[in-house]
Amino acid sequence: TTGDVTLDVGFVNTAACKSAITYIDGDAGILRYRGYPIEQLAESSSFLETSYLLIYGELPTAEQLSAFDSRLRRHTLLVEDMKNFFDGFPRDAHPMSVLASGVAALGTFYQDSHDPYDPEAVETQTFRLMAKLPTIAAYAFRKSQGRSLLYPNNDYNLVENFLWMTFGQPTEPFDLDPDLAKALDLLFILHADHEQNCSTSTVRLVGSSEADLFASISAGIQALSGPLHGGANSAVLSMLNKIKSEGGDVAEFVRKVKNKEDGVKLMGFGHRVYKNYDPRATIVKKTAHEMFEKRAASNPLLELAMELEATALEDDYFVERKLYPNVDFYTGLIYESMGFPSDMFTVLFAIGRLPGWIAQYREMINDPATKIGRPRQVYTGSAERSFVPVDERG
Ligand code: SDX
């Protein structure tokens, strides 16, 4: 027994660390940031306010939120030389690779303290990352489209600025869609933290070596890019388009999944922790409907996704395995309707998850009891044996 968790040798199942940031009850489908239910934050908060809550542990007063917002606006610009960095990538470089490299490169432009135990240094890195990561993300997209890079406009808040730098035209006034900004703000709230998932554990593990925040977040972005983790939102859209291109036969697709034909999975379904409906998926599904209703745009892929969900939720194969829609099942449909290409979906996930990664890094570096440190293993290899010279090997 390690602390309050039993080490079950059959399947190594131990708590990675202690944390006071996010609480999940996978069986009940509960998610809370610093004790606040995700449903209430989704309904009443903003991404900036939720970011403040995750990082500092309390909801900000109006004055604290205003100071947080205005300090972030002063950090959105990249060092001019960083622009050359984007020229080094091929046009078809995946934006997640550019984002991870860009965040690692960001640290090289600042010679002030990288000491993880210097609170002022970590605070400065926190603001630089929160403000500049969306700029790097927007530039990764613009370079892939062969379009000019737009300076941030600090009349906008973080989410609006990201939309300006992504979709704006240097020669035209920007027609910011408030509904789109609001929907993206909500999606960022839903992605802001999620306990010890793959990418957050990566940030903690890298940071536990006293690597600085830039290096740890860059590693987290790489972990998030995998299709079983943050890459699932793009994989869902590919799955829906494939079903549609093959005639839209949902029953046939579900049959293939159940028979594990070609290793095909129902992407956007299942979760390591939720063995019930992911509470974020409920909110995302509602947002998808509102988005499409408002735009009077029927989306055949949304209809297909809903038919796929309904079919799976009535099928014993999925019910017995407690496979329900997770946060990624509907997000891709919304991002696509916003005008993002699918290789940007996981980049959007990273922008949303950044405050959670930062909060978890800061908790880990300030409290050894919350460090993952060095995980152990259950050894399943050969017992001790003696060396055999090569000419005596059979
Ligand atoms: C995220 O951890 C987090 O919090 C992550 C995240 C976050 O916010 O950070 O929530 C974000 O990563 C969400 C998950 C996104 N990934 C996907 O949607 C990819 C598809 N999902 C699966 O790969 C899978 O469900 C996992 C990896 C997410 C979870 O796997 P589990 O719960 O550990 O289940 P398992 O791999 O042990 O499989 C159990 C059974 C197996 O069948 P049997 O061997 O018992 O016959 O369920 C089957 C699996 O084949 N199964 C699926 C399935 N997921 C599991 N079968 C079909 N489709 C699926 N999606």
UniProtKB/TrEMBL annotation:
Pathway: Carbohydrate metabolism; tricarboxylic acid cycle; isocitrate from oxaloacetate: step 1/2. Transmembrane segments: none annotated. It catalyses: oxaloacetate + acetyl-CoA + H2O = citrate + CoA + H(+). GO terms for cellular component: cytoplasm. It comes from the Bacteria. Keywords: Acyltransferase, Transferase, Tricarboxylic acid cycle. GO terms for molecular function: citrate synthase activity. The active site is at H271, D328. Pfam families: Citrate_synt (PF00285). The keyword Transferase applies. SUPFAM superfamilies: Citrate synthase. GO terms for biological process: tricarboxylic acid cycle. Belongs to the citrate synthase family. PANTHER family: CITRATE SYNTHASE. This is Citrate synthase.
